[in-house]
Design goal:
Elements (H helix, E strand, L loop, with lengths): L1 H19 L16 E12 L3 E12 L9 E10 L4 E13 L2 E16 L21 E15 L8 E16 L4 H5 L7 E13 L10 E11 L9 E15 L2 E14 L36 E18 L2 E17 L12 E12 L2 E10 L5 E7 L4
Antiparallel strand pairs: 1-2, 2-3, 3-4, 4-5, 5-6, 6-7, 7-8, 8-9, 9-10, 10-11, 11-12, 12-13, 13-14, 14-15, 15-16
Amino acid sequence: MLAPAVFLFFMLLSLSAVAAGRTAAPGLVPVKQTPTMDGIALPLLSFSSDQGFGYGAVGGMYLYGEGKAPYAHALSAQVFFTARGAMNHYLRYDGPQLLGPLRLEGRLEYRQEKSSPFFGAGNLSAPDFRGDVDDQKYNYDKGSPGLWVRLRGRPFGEKHPFQSYVGYGWRYTRVSPYETSILAQEKPIGIEGGPSGQILAGALWDTRDEESDPTSGGVEEVALRVSGLATFSRYQYAGVTLSERRYIRITPRLVFAQRLTLDMLFGEVPFFEWMTTGGVNVSEGIGGMSSVRGIERNRFAGNVKAFSNSELRFQAARMSVFGQPLALGAVVFLDLGRVWHPGVTDGKWHEWHPGIGGGLRFSRRAAVVRMDYARSTETGRQRFYITFGHMF
């Protein structure tokens, strides 16, 4: 699967150069120009023990403009289906300086999962689980169209590290538990499904040298989300997310990257929110490609989640493909995570769930393709991931 994907990645890099360049007239010296657009598209033909066989396509386009950093506009879209009856389609826009100093971001999506994971609440949930993600005991049927929009800006100037944002998110969740499932037995808040609207707000202190592929500096973030009748939500709850991302250049080719995240939910929290975090970059888990790699997706869930991601990123080579610069990198990582939930036994404080692994990175300016292999050291089970962008 990797060879066709990487080949197509290289081909589209060449197409971006052709589209942006100019051909000199005969006898004249060509003028070297910086491409104004990068385009990437990848076929999604995959298998994972979380989703089974999957197929579809994902693509991204970056439009560059003078004085616009890291790009003027970014568009991405995905169409994806799996043999287990899941769908994940989205369309996303990012305009870093679309409205003067304000950054406009938005996403419209539809998700459907005939086998959405639910293992119960807490850090020691489903102790009898042996890795069969197809067992209806640990799944339910879910559909959830949704959207979000966010305005982000730098009130003290474009070069100042302080940023703030406000936004709104809405999702309608349809819940259909299987008769023999843990969800049907426990009947937690949210089993009726329904709308969940959120007012979003947050602040960041961003000192990274580069947003898409940083090598120094960091980001501290505090985020708030509130749901209630006024936000068109069936449930009334609030969440606070604290996050720290730090990047340390060890050598010109070697970078240590660290992320720490703490997410806390309060009030009438529906169970399908136990797996999510707030902030600019939303994660889910504990378990999966955005929290703890190597552990089954959403394996552990609760009102309070904490996880740590440590990566050693090595830039192996820089090369020119079809006349365009491309960087090849390698990563080794250690992920740790755990949850706390009221009314259940969560174990001792040191009982965290680890995942280890490594991967490859292909990058061209703001575009990064990530390929990771991970293993749970608790169970020995393995996972493989392909997606766009660094994990953090």
